[in-house]
Amino acid sequence: VPVAREQGPLAGRTVLVTAGGTREAIDPVRYLGNRSSGKMGFAISAAAADLGAKVTLVTTATPPADVASRVDVVTVEGARAMREKVLEAEPDLLVMAAAVADFRPSEVATSKIKKTHGSGDDSAPVITLVRNPDILAEAVAQRDAKADSEARRRVIVGFAAETGDADGDVLFHARAKLARKGCDVLVANEVGDGVTFGQDESTAHLLRADSDEVVTVGPAPKSHIAAAVVDLAASIFTTQ
Ligand code: CTP
Ligand code: CA
Fold it and tell me: How are cofactors bound according to the entry's free-text note (predicted)?
């Protein structure tokens, strides 16, 4: 049963959740995108609202009405717009559930690219990509650059969709990513064979920077995994 906003363990806390896959513009009508549905970010937003937080959802995808009615929804398209919203907010809890494109087209055509471009040129256009900013890493750096006690109390959660490979299993890659990103918690989803993207059930491993312990949740509905993630973040606030 959701408790009143004034009461839950996240009452008085600001939470920013990113959701969905970024859309990187090619021209006014086309973009490069990915298959992220936004469902995990929506579930995290709802779980944080359940615990009394003031939630901002920065999303590329449209949340269901029951989520939209309880959080502030900010719609963005590309990674750079998402970055701006995240860095200006400086929330108590940041959860980067969005699938941020690692690259974007180096240039956005100002008018629609035609099949025949130039004067009778029927060759295929070449789209050159450049690296997008790493929003999660920048948010961590922004917080850590501030020495004040309020900044030090902020909690940052990253997500990772991982498969095992010749170098190591899912947890090996997740531990390495947690260290690389510098966030406090990493939620590692096992992917491959059509699992996770767009599905309602998944398995997640919750890793903490300050402990070798791993909590595995699932296979379970995303709402259940979201509640576990938000509970863990709330417990970090309580114990610090
Ligand atoms: N992320 C981000 N900005 C990016 C890319 C990723 O903020 N440009 C965030 C994602 O929202 C997620 C976390 O970083 O919370 C991990 O994303 P992932 O794609 O797994 O990490 P990468 O560092 O991009 O590594 P990889 O080469 O595995 O894609
Ligand atoms: Ca990536």
Answer: Binds 1 FMN per subunit.
